Amino acid sequence: MTNNVDPRPGRWILPLVILGMVAFTYVFVSQLPAGAPVDTLPPSTSSTTSTAPGGSTSTTGTTIALTPEMQAYIDAIHDAETRLVDLDSQLTAANSGFDADPRTVSFDEARAAFETVANESADVASDLSAVTPPDSLSASHATLVSEATNASAAADAALEGLIAPPPDTGEARRNGVQSFSEAVANFQQEVGNAEAIATGE
Fold first, then answer.
1. Predicted structure pTM score
2. Taking CA 158 as the corner, what is the angle to CA 156 and CA 163, rounded to the nearest 5 degrees?
3. How are the residues of the chain apportioned to helix, strand and coil, as percentages rounded to the nearest 5?
4. What is the dihedral of CA 98, 107, 164, 156, to 10 degrees?
5. Fewer Cβ neighbours under 10 Å: the N or C end of the chain?
6. How far apart are CA 175 and CA 105, in angstroms?
């Protein structure tokens, strides 16, 4: 009787090697320390939501808390800005009405409006000069005072042009009104610059 000998005994070696490698890999990996969990959430930010008239809402990005000194200063220059913008609207309206054809603002009404703007813009410049800015905003404050002073001088020039006798053509008045608006626009721009410095933006 002839024995049935496997003619290729080496064919079992490769499966045994693979099995051994799998077993070794499993044991090795199972003994590794657990990794730290990966945080996939974005960094948190704070935001503010405001409700405008009519119920609409707007959301702003991260806010930076200002020191009481800085906040008081920002409030002061915003107050000056609001006053100047309102005066600019009054002066422009009175000047436009006086120039209209037919005229919708009388000379007496225009003079009263121009005098109000001249007096109140001088008050704004004076009040602003009395404000002490934080050290980091000294240069910006000097610009704000300069523009407020320019607006006051322009209002005076507009008033002088309004009451100037013939043969005045109104050019001095119109130039004064335009200069006032330009000074107010420059003032608003510098308020934005001051806020950027205050918040570090």
1. 0.69
2. 95
3. 65, 5, 30
4. -80
5. N
6. 19
